[in-house]
Every structure is written in C-alpha cells, then in structure tokens.
Amino acid sequence: MTEILHNLPGRTVIVGSGLAGLMTALTLAPEPSVIVTRAALGMETSSAWAQGGIAAGMGADDSAALHLADTLAAGDGLCDPTIAAGIVAQAPAAITALEQAGVRFDRNAAGELSLGLEAAHSRRRIVHAEGDGSGAAIVAALVRAVKQTPSVTALEGFEARRILMEGEHVAGLLCATVNGAAILPTSKLVLATGGIGGLYEATTNPMGNFGQGIALAARAGAELTDMEFVQFHPTALDSRRRPLALVSEAVRGEGALLVNERGDRFMARIPGAELAPRDVVARAISAEIARGGRVFLDARAALGSRFAARFPVIAALCGEAGIDPAKDLIPVRPAIHYHMGGVATDENGLSSVSGLWVVGEAASTGLHGANRLASNSLLEAAVMGMRAARDISAMPAGPAGATLAARLPAPADASLVRPIVSRHLGVLRNADAIDGAIAALLPLAEGDGPAADPAIVALLIAVFAGLRAESRGAHARTDFPLKLAQANRRRMHLAQALEIARATPPYAFAPLHTLARSA
Fold first, then answer.
1. Sign of torsion, CA 124 126 127 128?
2. Most C-beta atoms within 10 A of its C-beta, which of 245, 302, 420, 447?
3. Could you tell me if 50 and 233 are in contact, meaning their C-beta atoms sit under 8 angstroms apart?
4. pLDDT at position 349, please?
5. Given 304, 334, 364, which residue is the final one in a domain?
6. What is the pLDDT of residue 396?
C-alpha cells in the first residue's frame, strides 16, 4: 500500500543532505521544506568526505577575476563564462553564509582565513576547516543548523525512487521507506543527490552514489549535458579499502612529489608538474601503471613530521594501511572522484522540467566545463543551493501535487553495471570500448530490474563519450588524441540517448553481452 503524506502539503522537497541540499533548506527558511535522505542527515554524502575545502579568491593577492581565469583554464574551453563568473564572484558571500550557519573555518594567528594551495590554482585560495577534514566539519555544522531550524522537516530512511508528473510539471515524489511506498505531493522539487562514483569499482565516493538524481531527472524528461566528463582524482590511496581513501591534492600543494617505483619524478617534465590540472596528472599516473609500474606520493621532505598535524584525516587513513607518511612513500592511483556532467540547469539551478531544480554534483551548470578546478565543487554546492532557494521562494505556489498511488520500482543495484563501466569508461577511452559498453548497458537500461537506473546513468555517459570524437579535459580518447578547434556542450534527453544506443553496432564483447543478457 502507498501512503500519501498529506501532512506536509505545499512544501519544497529536497532530495539529499549534502552541502547543496542543506544550504537550500537553510536559505529557504522560514519557508517550510522537507529533506528526504536515505541515510541520516549528512551521512553517505560526498560533501562530508571532501578534504580540500572551498575555493574563494579572498587573499590579499587574489581576486574573483584570477579565480575565474583559473576556472576557465581548467575547464578546457567548455565552461560557461557568465555562469562561472557569477559563481566565483559569490565565493566570499558563500563563506560568510556558511560561517553564519555555524561553520568554523581555519584561521591564522592574526585571525585571517588560512588559505591553502591546490592544483591549477594560481594563488592560495582554499578555505578549509579542521585541516583536511573540511567536508565533514562543514556538513556537521550545517546538520546542526538544520536540526535547529523549525521550518525544515527531515525524513530519514526515505529513498527517492521516481518523480511523479502531472502533464509537464512536477507533482510529487515516490519514495521507499521501511513501511513501504510513500508519496510526497509537491510542485517544487530539488535534487541534491551527489555524484556517480558508485558506478566505478575504484572510487573515492560513497559506493551507493550511482547518479540517482540524474536517473530520476532523466526519467522525468529533463535535459542532460556533458555526461562524458568524469573526473578521476589522480591520488587515491592504493590500498584494499573500498571505497578508496582520498589523498587530497592539497598534499601536493604543500610540496609533496609524485615518483614511480624507480624513484623517477615523472611529472617534472610536464607543465605545472605535480600541480598540473587533475586530468593531466591522472593520465600521467595511468600511463605509469599501464606499463606495469607503481606510483607514490613522497611527502617526506616537504612535510615529514608535520604531516599528521596538517593532514590528520589522511594520516589516519594511511595508518590503517600500515603507512607512515612522515617516513614512507604513499602508494596512489587514479579513482573516480567527481562528475562535471549531469542535469542541465540555468543560473538558479532550474532544470528543463517545470518545478524541478538540481543543485550540487548532480547538476551541470557550466561552471566546471570539461574539468573541474579543485575545490570549486563545494563552492558551487553552497552558491547554487542558495540561488535555488531564492528562486523557489520567488515562484508562485503550484498545484497541490500528485495523490494517486504509483508502483514502487525495485531498489537500485549497480553491481552488474560496475565492471562494465570500470573496464570501458575509465581514464583512457576508445570507440571499441565505448561501443562495447553501450551494447552491454542497453539491455539493462531498458529493463525494469535493480540494474536499470545505474545502467541508464552509465549508458548516458557512454553515449555522450561516443559522440565526443576528441580529447578534452577529463575526456581522453586514444583514437582521437587531439582537441577539436570548436568546443561544444551537448544537451540530450534520455529518449534521444536510447535511440543512439540502439543504433550502435554490437561489437564482439561476448562476456559483456552474456552479462547483460543474464541480468
């Protein structure tokens, strides 16, 4: 039986309790809102795992213009300059808003913000909290603020399964709960569901994050954009832990070097060296591993005994693996870390579907382009959460929302999808691998089993990747190593992607076809 929650009428429903979702709810206050979260507030979110911090051009030698220039350079020709300029200009306001919500950023002896340096930034501009525990500290403070805000109702243990529509407008959200199906009638829905890391075997994200928001929005008819741009963090801790622990780029910002098993500093000959953009470093490390080598981060000379004080979380994670960063080399490898693509939105987070806003990693605003600049993700989450809330507040009240029962889909399971994506949609791609992934994913995406939603998201990545016949930013193709003269962003609906997938020749990837047919 499906329960219809009539006791929460007319409220904005926010799916997800990471930084973007929490900031949306807090900014909406005192307007009533509902946060729907599968786990407890703030848990199972990529935001809470972020180590570096928030990029903000607030130093004496810095400016929004310099921050924008670095963002555009990292985005490799695909950033929306107007969107990017607006978001980086709001960085100081976002920091102020977070402090007002209870976040305590690290400051020096003079009381000034302590600013860190990360790859592809021309200035020290990373605002952090509790050293390398920034994400956890920020989310914890916002969770406390939300719990103290009477206008916010948190529904923990609610998993969003489908967006319900009345015509072309959002009318409700179908959720799974411990008591069965539940419908939240609403005309204003915000997806703040995080990224796609759970589609890959090597990830620094929560394994359950397979792109739920993208699947929900795609099924509702929303436009998607730039799905092919998947960022691999160059330096995940190479250990047995799953998901992989992140070794923040800030470690390299403090002077740590990358070396191979021979002790060669292989990044020294590359512009930017260890602080080159993430896609450059990830490809270089992948090449070392592909030849049968290993890669290590050497922080002994740069940090030595100071490592644990500056990076307490990373030091503890290394300790779990029997590594002392003050004395030992840290083994690292690339792992999926962030998705630049997602649901296409405007400057306020509004998607192409009436009544549907998307914020944070699930969205594609145009800020990141082909490759996200380090620590711009938390900045975007905060700014866009606030913008979406203000946009929602300015909207007139819509219809009461759906009241009819709907069938509850099976819980999502990415286990069949993960080996396909990991093998064929990694750091380096080519046409045969992409086509093979499409052929294996299509039957899963068109089915109604547990693999369907993860397969839809993975299939979208593969189709977009197949259409981009160049190497740009985080999308690297061995069969198209050069960059096209004209950069373009592509928008597409799920229906269009499925038609393209059906027209893709079924290359001879027998094991993958067998896997797909058995699902």
1. negative
2. 420
3. no
4. 98
5. 334
6. 82
The pLDDT, as a whole number, for residue 226 is: 97
278 is catalytic: yes
Compare 51 and 142 and report the one with higher pLDDT. Answer: 142
List the domain range (segments joined by +) for residue 45: 2-194+340-394
pTM for the structure as a whole: 0.91
Is it true that the peptide bond before 30 is cis, omega within 30 degrees of 0?
Answer: yes
User: What's the pLDDT at 400?
Assistant: 56
61 shares its domain with 150: yes
What DSSP string runs through 382-429?
A: HHHHHHHHHHHHHSPP------S--PPPPPP--TTHHHHHHHHSSSEE
- The identity of residue 90, as a single letter, is Q
Looking at the 3D structure of the chain, how many domains does it have? 3
pLDDT tens digits for range 368-412: 999 999 899 999 999 999 999 999 999 887 665 555 667 899 999
Determine the average pLDDT of the residues in 144-163.
Answer: 97
SS3 of residue 266 by DSSP: coil
Handedness of CA 342, 13, 495, 80 (dihedral sign): negative
Give 3-state DSSP helix, strand, coil % of the chain, rounded to 5.
Answer: 35, 20, 45
For residue 268, count other CB atoms closer than 10 A to its CB.
11
The answer to whether residue 509 scores a pLDDT higher than 70 is no
Q: Strand 189-191's sheet: what is its strand order? A: 152-156, 33-37, 12-15, 189-191, 356-358
Q: What is the CATH number of the domain that holds 254?
A: 3.90.700.10
Enter the DSSP assignment of 199.
G
| DSSP code for 90 | T
Pair 330, 197: CB distance under 8 Å: no
CATH number of the domain that residue 464 is part of: 1.20.58.100
Q: Is the pLDDT of residue 512 over 90?
A: no
- From the candidates 278, 418, 429, 468, which is the catalytic residue? 278
pLDDT beyond 60 at 510? no
How much is the mean pLDDT over the chain? 93
